[in-house]
Write a structure and sequence with these properties.
This protein is mainly α. The chain has 15 helices and two strands. It is globular.
Length: 422
Protein backbone atom coordinates (compact mmCIF):
# COMPACT_ATOMS: atom_id res chain seq x y z
CA UNK A 1 0.00 0.00 0.00
CA UNK A 2 2.79 2.42 0.88
CA UNK A 3 4.39 1.69 -2.49
CA UNK A 4 1.35 3.00 -4.36
CA UNK A 5 0.91 5.96 -2.02
CA UNK A 6 4.48 7.17 -2.35
CA UNK A 7 4.55 6.45 -6.07
CA UNK A 8 1.56 8.80 -6.42
CA UNK A 9 3.17 11.45 -4.21
CA UNK A 10 6.38 11.21 -6.23
CA UNK A 11 4.74 11.46 -9.65
CA UNK A 12 2.04 14.01 -8.75
CA UNK A 13 3.82 16.32 -6.29
CA UNK A 14 7.50 15.38 -6.54
CA UNK A 15 7.29 14.72 -2.79
CA UNK A 16 10.81 14.73 -1.26
CA UNK A 17 12.08 11.21 -0.59
CA UNK A 18 9.01 9.49 -2.04
CA UNK A 19 11.00 8.13 -4.97
CA UNK A 20 13.00 5.84 -2.68
CA UNK A 21 10.01 3.50 -2.51
CA UNK A 22 10.65 2.38 -6.10
CA UNK A 23 13.81 0.60 -4.94
CA UNK A 24 13.46 -3.04 -3.93
CA UNK A 25 16.42 -2.83 -1.56
CA UNK A 26 14.79 -0.04 0.46
CA UNK A 27 11.38 -1.73 0.63
CA UNK A 28 13.00 -5.05 1.61
CA UNK A 29 14.86 -3.32 4.44
CA UNK A 30 11.63 -1.71 5.62
CA UNK A 31 9.85 -5.08 5.44
CA UNK A 32 12.52 -6.69 7.66
CA UNK A 33 12.32 -3.92 10.26
CA UNK A 34 8.53 -3.88 10.41
CA UNK A 35 8.43 -7.68 10.53
CA UNK A 36 10.89 -7.75 13.44
CA UNK A 37 8.89 -5.04 15.21
CA UNK A 38 5.64 -6.99 14.85
CA UNK A 39 7.08 -10.35 15.91
CA UNK A 40 9.19 -9.09 18.82
CA UNK A 41 7.05 -6.28 20.25
CA UNK A 42 3.50 -7.32 19.45
CA UNK A 43 4.47 -10.98 19.64
CA UNK A 44 4.85 -10.67 23.42
CA UNK A 45 1.29 -9.41 23.70
CA UNK A 46 0.00 -12.25 21.54
CA UNK A 47 1.83 -14.79 23.71
CA UNK A 48 0.32 -13.26 26.85
CA UNK A 49 -3.13 -13.42 25.25
CA UNK A 50 -2.60 -17.09 24.36
CA UNK A 51 -1.49 -17.78 27.92
CA UNK A 52 -4.59 -16.09 29.37
CA UNK A 53 -6.79 -18.08 27.01
CA UNK A 54 -4.95 -21.20 28.19
CA UNK A 55 -3.86 -22.05 24.66
CA UNK A 56 -1.14 -24.36 25.96
CA UNK A 57 0.75 -27.27 24.46
CA UNK A 58 -0.32 -30.76 25.48
CA UNK A 59 2.79 -32.91 25.83
CA UNK A 60 2.76 -36.61 25.03
CA UNK A 61 5.01 -38.74 27.20
CA UNK A 62 7.77 -39.70 24.77
CA UNK A 63 10.41 -40.32 27.42
CA UNK A 64 12.44 -37.26 26.37
CA UNK A 65 14.43 -35.23 28.87
CA UNK A 66 12.69 -32.03 29.95
CA UNK A 67 9.57 -32.56 27.86
CA UNK A 68 7.13 -32.32 30.80
CA UNK A 69 8.46 -28.86 31.66
CA UNK A 70 7.05 -27.68 28.33
CA UNK A 71 3.49 -28.62 29.19
CA UNK A 72 1.22 -25.57 29.08
CA UNK A 73 3.63 -23.47 26.98
CA UNK A 74 1.51 -21.26 24.67
CA UNK A 75 1.13 -22.72 21.20
CA UNK A 76 -0.36 -21.36 17.96
CA UNK A 77 2.51 -18.84 17.98
CA UNK A 78 2.54 -19.24 14.21
CA UNK A 79 -0.02 -16.42 14.26
CA UNK A 80 2.86 -14.12 15.18
CA UNK A 81 4.93 -15.28 12.21
CA UNK A 82 2.00 -15.04 9.79
CA UNK A 83 1.21 -11.49 10.94
CA UNK A 84 4.87 -10.53 10.62
CA UNK A 85 4.87 -11.81 7.03
CA UNK A 86 1.53 -10.54 5.78
CA UNK A 87 1.48 -7.00 7.19
CA UNK A 88 4.90 -5.84 5.83
CA UNK A 89 4.20 -7.50 2.48
CA UNK A 90 0.86 -5.69 2.17
CA UNK A 91 2.58 -2.43 3.14
CA UNK A 92 5.67 -2.50 0.93
CA UNK A 93 5.22 -4.93 -1.99
CA UNK A 94 3.56 -4.38 -5.36
CA UNK A 95 0.26 -6.11 -4.73
CA UNK A 96 -0.58 -6.47 -8.43
CA UNK A 97 2.47 -8.72 -8.92
CA UNK A 98 1.33 -12.29 -9.67
CA UNK A 99 4.16 -13.81 -7.64
CA UNK A 100 3.35 -11.72 -4.56
CA UNK A 101 -0.35 -12.61 -4.85
CA UNK A 102 0.56 -16.29 -5.07
CA UNK A 103 2.74 -16.07 -1.95
CA UNK A 104 0.02 -14.30 0.02
CA UNK A 105 -2.51 -16.98 -0.95
CA UNK A 106 -0.06 -19.74 0.00
CA UNK A 107 0.61 -18.15 3.40
CA UNK A 108 -3.07 -17.77 4.23
CA UNK A 109 -4.02 -21.19 2.83
CA UNK A 110 -1.55 -23.29 4.81
CA UNK A 111 -1.80 -21.02 7.82
CA UNK A 112 -5.54 -21.73 7.89
CA UNK A 113 -5.00 -25.51 7.67
CA UNK A 114 -2.47 -25.36 10.50
CA UNK A 115 -4.78 -23.14 12.57
CA UNK A 116 -7.64 -25.64 12.22
CA UNK A 117 -5.31 -28.44 13.33
CA UNK A 118 -4.12 -26.47 16.38
CA UNK A 119 -7.67 -25.40 17.23
CA UNK A 120 -8.85 -29.02 17.32
CA UNK A 121 -5.89 -30.00 19.52
CA UNK A 122 -6.20 -27.11 21.97
CA UNK A 123 -9.89 -26.29 22.20
CA UNK A 124 -11.46 -29.63 21.26
CA UNK A 125 -8.87 -31.49 23.39
CA UNK A 126 -8.21 -33.95 20.57
CA UNK A 127 -4.47 -34.72 20.54
CA UNK A 128 -4.66 -36.08 16.99
CA UNK A 129 -5.82 -32.74 15.60
CA UNK A 130 -6.92 -32.47 11.98
CA UNK A 131 -6.84 -35.85 10.24
CA UNK A 132 -3.69 -36.32 8.15
CA UNK A 133 -5.70 -36.96 4.99
CA UNK A 134 -7.33 -33.52 5.26
CA UNK A 135 -3.95 -31.85 5.76
CA UNK A 136 -2.60 -33.58 2.67
CA UNK A 137 -5.73 -32.71 0.67
CA UNK A 138 -5.24 -29.07 1.65
CA UNK A 139 -1.61 -29.17 0.57
CA UNK A 140 -2.56 -30.83 -2.72
CA UNK A 141 -5.17 -28.11 -3.25
CA UNK A 142 -2.54 -25.41 -2.82
CA UNK A 143 -0.18 -27.30 -5.14
CA UNK A 144 -2.92 -27.30 -7.80
CA UNK A 145 -3.50 -23.56 -7.43
CA UNK A 146 0.22 -22.79 -7.64
CA UNK A 147 0.88 -25.16 -10.53
CA UNK A 148 -2.07 -23.96 -12.60
CA UNK A 149 -1.24 -20.29 -11.98
CA UNK A 150 2.44 -20.60 -12.85
CA UNK A 151 1.69 -22.66 -15.96
CA UNK A 152 -1.22 -20.71 -17.44
CA UNK A 153 -0.86 -17.12 -16.19
CA UNK A 154 0.40 -14.89 -19.01
CA UNK A 155 2.51 -12.79 -16.62
CA UNK A 156 4.67 -15.76 -15.59
CA UNK A 157 7.40 -15.56 -18.21
CA UNK A 158 11.15 -15.65 -18.68
CA UNK A 159 13.51 -13.74 -20.98
CA UNK A 160 16.38 -15.33 -22.85
CA UNK A 161 19.65 -13.46 -23.26
CA UNK A 162 20.49 -12.76 -26.87
CA UNK A 163 23.71 -14.55 -27.76
CA UNK A 164 26.79 -12.33 -27.61
CA UNK A 165 25.29 -9.68 -25.34
CA UNK A 166 26.88 -9.39 -21.91
CA UNK A 167 27.88 -7.00 -19.19
CA UNK A 168 30.45 -6.72 -16.44
CA UNK A 169 29.51 -6.80 -12.80
CA UNK A 170 31.40 -3.54 -12.36
CA UNK A 171 28.79 -1.74 -14.46
CA UNK A 172 26.17 -2.04 -11.74
CA UNK A 173 25.28 1.45 -10.51
CA UNK A 174 21.99 0.77 -8.73
CA UNK A 175 21.74 -2.35 -6.63
CA UNK A 176 18.27 -1.42 -5.46
CA UNK A 177 16.69 -1.27 -8.90
CA UNK A 178 16.32 -5.04 -9.28
CA UNK A 179 14.55 -6.39 -12.32
CA UNK A 180 14.92 -3.24 -14.48
CA UNK A 181 16.89 -3.29 -17.71
CA UNK A 182 19.59 -0.66 -18.17
CA UNK A 183 21.31 0.54 -21.31
CA UNK A 184 24.62 -0.85 -20.09
CA UNK A 185 23.16 -4.26 -19.30
CA UNK A 186 22.69 -7.38 -21.40
CA UNK A 187 20.16 -7.58 -24.21
CA UNK A 188 17.22 -9.94 -23.74
CA UNK A 189 14.59 -11.32 -26.05
CA UNK A 190 10.88 -10.66 -25.65
CA UNK A 191 9.18 -12.30 -22.69
CA UNK A 192 8.07 -15.84 -23.42
CA UNK A 193 6.16 -18.64 -21.72
CA UNK A 194 8.48 -21.45 -20.78
CA UNK A 195 8.64 -24.44 -18.46
CA UNK A 196 12.37 -24.12 -17.95
CA UNK A 197 13.82 -24.39 -14.46
CA UNK A 198 17.31 -24.27 -12.93
CA UNK A 199 19.15 -27.54 -12.48
CA UNK A 200 22.33 -27.61 -10.33
CA UNK A 201 25.83 -28.82 -11.28
CA UNK A 202 25.16 -28.67 -15.03
CA UNK A 203 26.95 -26.27 -17.40
CA UNK A 204 23.85 -25.13 -19.29
CA UNK A 205 21.84 -25.29 -16.11
CA UNK A 206 18.30 -25.18 -17.48
CA UNK A 207 15.87 -28.06 -17.61
CA UNK A 208 12.62 -27.87 -19.57
CA UNK A 209 9.77 -29.95 -18.15
CA UNK A 210 8.08 -30.04 -21.56
CA UNK A 211 11.03 -31.90 -23.11
CA UNK A 212 9.92 -35.02 -21.24
CA UNK A 213 6.90 -35.09 -23.55
CA UNK A 214 8.78 -34.46 -26.80
CA UNK A 215 7.85 -37.96 -27.97
CA UNK A 216 4.29 -36.64 -28.46
CA UNK A 217 5.46 -34.73 -31.51
CA UNK A 218 4.64 -31.19 -32.64
CA UNK A 219 2.91 -29.02 -30.04
CA UNK A 220 4.06 -31.14 -27.11
CA UNK A 221 4.88 -27.99 -25.09
CA UNK A 222 1.22 -27.29 -24.32
CA UNK A 223 0.95 -30.59 -22.44
CA UNK A 224 3.83 -29.82 -20.07
CA UNK A 225 1.30 -29.23 -17.27
CA UNK A 226 0.96 -33.03 -17.05
CA UNK A 227 4.51 -33.08 -15.63
CA UNK A 228 4.75 -29.65 -14.02
CA UNK A 229 1.60 -29.54 -11.86
CA UNK A 230 2.14 -32.97 -10.20
CA UNK A 231 5.75 -31.93 -9.57
CA UNK A 232 4.58 -28.77 -7.80
CA UNK A 233 2.10 -30.76 -5.68
CA UNK A 234 4.80 -33.22 -4.59
CA UNK A 235 7.18 -30.39 -3.64
CA UNK A 236 4.54 -28.49 -1.64
CA UNK A 237 3.40 -31.60 0.25
CA UNK A 238 6.90 -32.89 0.97
CA UNK A 239 8.51 -29.62 2.09
CA UNK A 240 5.49 -28.48 4.10
CA UNK A 241 5.39 -31.77 6.00
CA UNK A 242 9.18 -31.68 6.37
CA UNK A 243 9.00 -28.33 8.15
CA UNK A 244 6.13 -29.63 10.28
CA UNK A 245 8.19 -32.65 11.41
CA UNK A 246 11.25 -30.48 12.05
CA UNK A 247 9.27 -28.36 14.50
CA UNK A 248 9.88 -30.69 17.42
CA UNK A 249 12.41 -28.91 19.62
CA UNK A 250 12.88 -25.26 20.56
CA UNK A 251 14.01 -23.04 17.69
CA UNK A 252 14.88 -25.80 15.21
CA UNK A 253 12.28 -25.17 12.49
CA UNK A 254 12.28 -21.40 13.06
CA UNK A 255 16.05 -20.96 12.69
CA UNK A 256 16.34 -23.41 9.81
CA UNK A 257 13.53 -21.63 7.95
CA UNK A 258 15.25 -18.26 8.44
CA UNK A 259 18.48 -19.61 6.92
CA UNK A 260 16.59 -21.05 3.95
CA UNK A 261 14.65 -17.79 3.59
CA UNK A 262 17.80 -15.67 3.32
CA UNK A 263 19.12 -17.97 0.60
CA UNK A 264 15.87 -17.89 -1.38
CA UNK A 265 15.78 -14.10 -1.07
CA UNK A 266 19.26 -13.88 -2.62
CA UNK A 267 18.24 -16.25 -5.43
CA UNK A 268 15.09 -14.21 -6.10
CA UNK A 269 17.10 -10.98 -6.24
CA UNK A 270 19.67 -12.24 -8.73
CA UNK A 271 17.02 -13.99 -10.86
CA UNK A 272 15.00 -10.77 -11.12
CA UNK A 273 17.98 -8.54 -11.96
CA UNK A 274 19.21 -8.52 -15.56
CA UNK A 275 22.81 -7.71 -14.70
CA UNK A 276 23.24 -10.33 -11.97
CA UNK A 277 21.38 -12.92 -14.06
CA UNK A 278 23.76 -12.25 -16.93
CA UNK A 279 26.87 -12.30 -14.71
CA UNK A 280 25.88 -15.59 -13.09
CA UNK A 281 24.59 -16.97 -16.40
CA UNK A 282 21.23 -17.91 -14.90
CA UNK A 283 17.66 -17.50 -16.09
CA UNK A 284 16.24 -13.96 -15.97
CA UNK A 285 12.67 -14.02 -14.62
CA UNK A 286 10.92 -10.64 -14.85
CA UNK A 287 9.09 -9.37 -11.76
CA UNK A 288 10.52 -11.96 -9.35
CA UNK A 289 12.68 -9.29 -7.75
CA UNK A 290 9.50 -8.15 -5.99
CA UNK A 291 9.51 -11.42 -4.06
CA UNK A 292 12.53 -10.14 -2.13
CA UNK A 293 10.15 -7.94 -0.11
CA UNK A 294 8.01 -10.94 0.81
CA UNK A 295 11.03 -13.04 1.77
CA UNK A 296 12.50 -10.18 3.80
CA UNK A 297 9.28 -10.16 5.85
CA UNK A 298 9.46 -13.96 6.10
CA UNK A 299 13.01 -13.89 7.49
CA UNK A 300 12.16 -11.03 9.85
CA UNK A 301 9.15 -12.95 11.14
CA UNK A 302 11.21 -16.09 11.77
CA UNK A 303 14.06 -14.25 13.48
CA UNK A 304 11.66 -12.20 15.59
CA UNK A 305 9.74 -15.28 16.69
CA UNK A 306 13.02 -16.99 17.51
CA UNK A 307 13.35 -14.39 20.31
CA UNK A 308 10.59 -16.31 22.09
CA UNK A 309 11.01 -19.74 20.52
CA UNK A 310 14.69 -20.32 21.33
CA UNK A 311 15.51 -22.64 24.24
CA UNK A 312 13.77 -22.58 26.65
CA UNK A 313 10.79 -21.70 24.45
CA UNK A 314 8.21 -19.22 25.71
CA UNK A 315 5.93 -20.10 22.80
CA UNK A 316 5.56 -22.79 20.14
CA UNK A 317 4.51 -22.01 16.60
CA UNK A 318 2.27 -25.07 16.28
CA UNK A 319 1.05 -26.31 12.92
CA UNK A 320 -0.24 -22.79 12.27
CA UNK A 321 3.37 -21.80 11.71
CA UNK A 322 5.22 -24.95 10.67
CA UNK A 323 2.90 -26.01 7.84
CA UNK A 324 2.90 -22.45 6.50
CA UNK A 325 6.69 -22.05 6.69
CA UNK A 326 7.34 -25.22 4.71
CA UNK A 327 4.67 -24.39 2.15
CA UNK A 328 5.98 -20.86 1.68
CA UNK A 329 9.50 -22.17 1.06
CA UNK A 330 8.22 -24.73 -1.46
CA UNK A 331 6.04 -22.30 -3.42
CA UNK A 332 8.72 -19.60 -3.38
CA UNK A 333 11.34 -22.00 -4.76
CA UNK A 334 8.99 -23.08 -7.56
CA UNK A 335 8.09 -19.46 -8.39
CA UNK A 336 11.74 -18.46 -8.91
CA UNK A 337 12.40 -21.77 -10.72
CA UNK A 338 14.87 -23.09 -8.18
CA UNK A 339 12.82 -26.06 -6.98
CA UNK A 340 15.46 -28.57 -8.07
CA UNK A 341 17.79 -26.95 -5.52
CA UNK A 342 15.43 -27.93 -2.68
CA UNK A 343 17.16 -31.29 -1.96
CA UNK A 344 20.29 -29.26 -1.13
CA UNK A 345 18.85 -26.11 0.42
CA UNK A 346 16.15 -27.86 2.46
CA UNK A 347 18.38 -30.79 3.39
CA UNK A 348 17.42 -30.58 7.06
CA UNK A 349 13.70 -30.82 6.23
CA UNK A 350 14.35 -33.62 3.74
CA UNK A 351 16.35 -35.69 6.23
CA UNK A 352 13.76 -35.20 8.96
CA UNK A 353 11.02 -36.31 6.57
CA UNK A 354 12.98 -39.29 5.27
CA UNK A 355 13.89 -40.41 8.81
CA UNK A 356 10.18 -40.83 9.59
CA UNK A 357 9.50 -42.64 6.32
CA UNK A 358 12.50 -44.94 6.85
CA UNK A 359 11.55 -45.62 10.49
CA UNK A 360 8.00 -46.66 9.55
CA UNK A 361 9.09 -48.73 6.55
CA UNK A 362 11.81 -50.54 8.52
CA UNK A 363 9.43 -51.24 11.42
CA UNK A 364 6.81 -52.73 9.10
CA UNK A 365 9.46 -54.82 7.34
CA UNK A 366 10.83 -56.24 10.61
CA UNK A 367 7.33 -56.80 11.98
CA UNK A 368 6.36 -58.82 8.92
CA UNK A 369 9.61 -60.77 8.84
CA UNK A 370 10.39 -61.33 12.54
CA UNK A 371 7.35 -60.30 14.56
CA UNK A 372 6.10 -57.34 16.54
CA UNK A 373 8.36 -57.72 19.60
CA UNK A 374 11.52 -57.90 17.51
CA UNK A 375 10.44 -54.89 15.45
CA UNK A 376 9.86 -52.82 18.60
CA UNK A 377 13.26 -53.67 20.03
CA UNK A 378 15.23 -53.21 16.80
CA UNK A 379 14.05 -49.91 15.37
CA UNK A 380 16.17 -48.12 12.78
CA UNK A 381 16.35 -44.99 14.97
CA UNK A 382 15.80 -44.71 18.70
CA UNK A 383 13.01 -42.33 17.75
CA UNK A 384 11.89 -40.35 14.70
CA UNK A 385 12.08 -37.63 13.45
CA UNK A 386 15.86 -37.57 13.53
CA UNK A 387 16.26 -34.80 16.13
CA UNK A 388 14.43 -36.98 18.67
CA UNK A 389 16.88 -39.80 17.92
CA UNK A 390 19.72 -37.56 19.07
CA UNK A 391 17.74 -36.54 22.14
CA UNK A 392 17.34 -40.23 23.02
CA UNK A 393 21.07 -40.66 22.48
CA UNK A 394 21.72 -38.09 25.22
CA UNK A 395 22.37 -34.81 23.40
CA UNK A 396 20.82 -31.66 24.86
CA UNK A 397 18.25 -30.12 22.55
CA UNK A 398 20.08 -26.78 22.44
CA UNK A 399 23.18 -28.53 21.08
CA UNK A 400 21.10 -30.45 18.53
CA UNK A 401 19.50 -27.22 17.31
CA UNK A 402 22.84 -25.40 17.03
CA UNK A 403 24.38 -28.24 15.03
CA UNK A 404 21.37 -28.51 12.72
CA UNK A 405 21.63 -24.76 12.12
CA UNK A 406 25.30 -25.14 11.21
CA UNK A 407 24.38 -27.89 8.75
CA UNK A 408 21.64 -25.64 7.37
CA UNK A 409 24.15 -22.82 6.84
CA UNK A 410 26.53 -25.16 5.03
CA UNK A 411 23.72 -26.33 2.76
CA UNK A 412 22.69 -22.72 2.09
CA UNK A 413 26.22 -21.78 1.04
CA UNK A 414 26.40 -24.89 -1.15
CA UNK A 415 23.11 -23.91 -2.80
CA UNK A 416 24.41 -20.47 -3.73
CA UNK A 417 27.71 -21.94 -4.93
CA UNK A 418 25.81 -24.14 -7.42
CA UNK A 419 25.14 -20.96 -9.42
CA UNK A 420 28.80 -21.01 -10.44
CA UNK A 421 29.83 -24.62 -9.72
CA UNK A 422 28.91 -26.41 -12.92
Amino acid sequence: MFYYLFQYLHSAFDFPGAGVFQYISFRAAMAVMVSLLISMVFGKRIIELLRRKQVGETIRDLGLEGEQKKAGTPTMGGLIILSAILIPTLCFAKLHNVYVILMLISTLWLGAIGFIDDYIKVFKKDKKGLAAKFKVLGQIGLGLIVGITLFFNENVVIKQKISGSSTDIGMITDLGNAGKDTQKGPVYSEAEKSMKTTIPFVKNNEFDYSKILSFLGEGYEKYAWIIFIPMVIIIVVFVSNGANLTDGIDGLATGTSAIIGVTLGILAYVSGNTIFADYLNIMYIPDTGELVIFMAAFVGGCVGFLWYNSFPAQAFMGDTGSLALGGIIAVFAVAIRKELLIPILCGVFIVENCSVIAQVAYFKYQKKKRGLEYAREHRLFKMAPLHHHYQKTGFHEAKIVARFWIIGLMLAVMTIVTLKLR
